[in-house]
Design a protein that fits this description.
Layout lengths: L1 H29 L2 H33 L6 H33 L5 H39 L8
Length: about 160
């Protein structure tokens, strides 16, 4: 069951973070304060779906990875995950709350833009690391499919 849930949950989380990041950049480049306020509010609401998706991806990945102690891609994913999680919990979530609060109050000061810059960098780092995890996951599933295929029908 975990195998069927892991990849979709991880990809949904990745795509949501990518949409948060890109919509932030687009709204900032547009210069429209209304767009910025709308995006910052939407990101907070979007986290209601993002958090369970990432939790499911993490929990299912841990369950799947328990049996893969010598697999290099699995070990690389395990090393990345604490940083991805810490970056999300310690930087991205507080930044999103702070920025939504400032935006809804119409306060676009130096603190807003400093935290916005930190959030964009942290988000890009997480996207890069999650992208590497997705790549390694595809490699692991490809190896698993090829290793399990013998050309003969398998009994059920």
């Amino acid at each position: 069951m975990f195998r069927q849930l892991h990849a979709p949950a991880g990809v949904v989380g990745f795509l949501m973070i990518l949409s948060f990041w890109s919509s932030t950049v687009i709204s900032e480049l547009s210069g429209s304060t209304e767009a910025i306020v709308m995006i910052k509010s939407a990101i907070l609401w979007g986290m209601i779906a993002l958090m369970p998706s990432l939790a499911l991806a993490g929990a299912s990945g841990m369950a799947i990875g328990r049996r893969r102690r010598r697999d290099a891609p699995a070990l690389a994913k395990k090393k990345r995950m604490p940083f991805i999680a810490a970056n999300g919990v310690l930087v991205l979530i507080p930044s999103a709350i702070f920025l939504a609060s400032k935006a809804s109050a119409g306060v676009f000061d130096g603190w807003f833009y400093a935290v916005q810059a930190i959030e964009l960098v942290a988000g890009a780092v997480n996207l890069g690391l999650m992208g590497l995890n997705i790549r390694d996951g595809f490699e692991m599933s490809r190896k698993r499919r090829h290793a399990g295929f013998s050309g003969a029908a398998t009994p059920k």
